[in-house]
Amino acid sequence: MMPETKIINRTVFRLSSGIHIERFEDGALVVFVAKHKIVELNTTADEILALIDGKRTLEQVAVEIAENHAILDEDILADVKDLCAELQEWQILEQVIIHSNHSKEEN
Q1: Does 69 map to a domain?
Q2: Among 76, 83, 79, which residue's Cα sits nearest to residue 28?
Q3: CA torsion sign, 35 to 78 to 12 to 51?
Q4: CA angle, corner 21, sides to 34 and 76, nearest 5?
Q5: Which helix (H) or strand (E) holds 96?
Q6: pLDDT tens string for the chain (107 positions)?
Q7: Which CATH number belongs to the domain containing residue 75 in this structure?
Q8: How many other C-beta atoms can be found within 10 angstroms of the C-beta atom of residue 90?
Q9: Domain span holding position 58
Q10: Which candidate, 83, 48, 40, 41, places its Cα nearest to that of 69?
Q11: pTM of whole model > 0.85?
Q12: Looking at the 3D structure of the chain, how many domains does it have?
């Protein structure tokens, strides 16, 4: 199991290498062949995952989702954090560490 890191609003994630996503009308399948894992996502989770790009913070992802659905970003931020924590635990996402000199490297 990976060491747990605190997920905050400014946390940035990216897909782990070896992840393949098959998108469908009603969600997506995330396939991690090396770990023999398949995860089914609903449309909301797929929309969140599509915004996880290694650059956007979780807060930025939540704001964009909220704007797309005319809801408050505070309402969606907890869901974004929970999904990312779960996907990180499954090694589908990895946290990007942003150093004070603005360079990025993986955790």
Answers
A1: yes
A2: 83
A3: positive
A4: 115
A5: strand 93-98
A6: 444 556 778 899 999 999 999 999 999 999 998 888 899 999 999 999 999 999 999 999 999 999 988 887 777 999 999 999 999 999 999 999 876 554 444 44
A7: 3.90.930.60
A8: 15
A9: 12-102
A10: 48
A11: no
A12: 1
> Tell me, what amino acid is at 95?
Q
In a domain, 2, yes or no: no
Dihedral of the alpha carbons of 45, 50, 55, 60, in degrees to the nearest 10: -50
Phi, psi values for residue 47, rounded to 5°:
-65, -40
Backbone angles phi, psi at 102, to 5 degrees: 70, 10
Residue 85 within a domain:
yes
Pick the closest to residue 96 from 4, 2, 16 (CA basis).
16
